[in-house]
Amino acid sequence: MNGAANHNFAAARFEALIQNTPLVVAMSFDRALNVRLWNRAAEHCFGFTGRQAIGRRLRDLIPVAVEGEELAEVIERVWETGLPYKPQELYLTLSDGPHWFQATVFAVLDGQEVQDVFFMASDVSERKRFEMALREHRDTLEEQVAQQTADLKRAKEEAENANQAKSDFLANMSHELRTPMHAVLSFARIGHARAGSTDVDKIKGYFEHIRASGERLLDLVNDLLDLSKLEAGQMQFNLTRYDLRRAIEDVRSELAPLFDAKHLQVVLDVATPDSHLTADRKRIDQVVRNLLGNAIKFSPEGGTIHLTVSADRLPAGRRASDEGERAALRIAIADEGVGIPPGEFEAIFDKFTQSSRTQTGAGGTGLGLAICREIVHGHRGIITAQNQPSGGALFNVLLPTQPEGLL
Predict the structure, then answer these.
(1) N or C: which end of the chain has fewer CB within 10 A?
(2) DSSP assignment of 173-193, as one string?
């Protein structure tokens, strides 16, 4: 085979190789950037047949940029310098969607003279989509791990707080139970020892101390039983129609010795002509008594407690989607004490919990406000706590005047 035949054979073999390579887009361009070669892969990608593409200018077929430069400018530079253009990743939007190509541009030289410039690219769209999906999955996984870590940390903190609250409760309850129990045993022991040698008045005094301590123990047990029943939904409310103002005045009179002991003033303001409602008077009295007891406990000597009854409105239903309102009465009790630390306005209603400002030195089991919340919620009402701008705590109780669907 002579030289011309060899050349023709090599050219034909090269042409067949280029045309039948399905994974590589191959094109070549003359000095004017007209298409000389356009293989079948290029036909598939760009939608032009070889007959349609050959002889046309590059910019008319694929006006695509490479790193901020048009592909035409890249090919012109290769024509001018003869230096290859390093492989780049191209992004093209074709008729069937976005595609990514790994492309290179190089010159065919005859000595030092550029004879042709080739553009060759392989479609790496599947790999690119896999990388993007993998990256998205990794980011999502990181977010999920971070969220789960945060949830676990929060759950751990909540469990630790709950455990600490129960430990505090047990310590407080032990103290609250032990103190009156010691009193009962001590006065019973003294009375027994002196039964035949002391006068009747002293014996009566011993029995009075025993009675008071026994009542204190009974109150503690009742608090525990009440909370257990309320949380289990087993507390039955005895509903009656009564005047809330008169009931509050009765509770105030009952607590008068405690007010007098600290020289406290209690100002009652009833800002509604009708203060009647349907509720369990015994349980609502228990709420008012507890809130007033806290106000007494934390008020400075000689201070003032403000107690207000006014008309208000409550949402008609229990769900956020429920519409309408219903008539309600608001009980507001404000003191001049140390107030409630920010961030604890909800926590103080949790069982076994006391305000961090009052959990030492003020006594109590941390059950009173939890019981108040259960009673108010059982009446389809709302109880909240906040601080007054001038200082001191403010508790608001909203009760429907005629509750519906009451337990």
Answers:
(1) N
(2) HHHHHHHHHHHHHHHHHHHHH
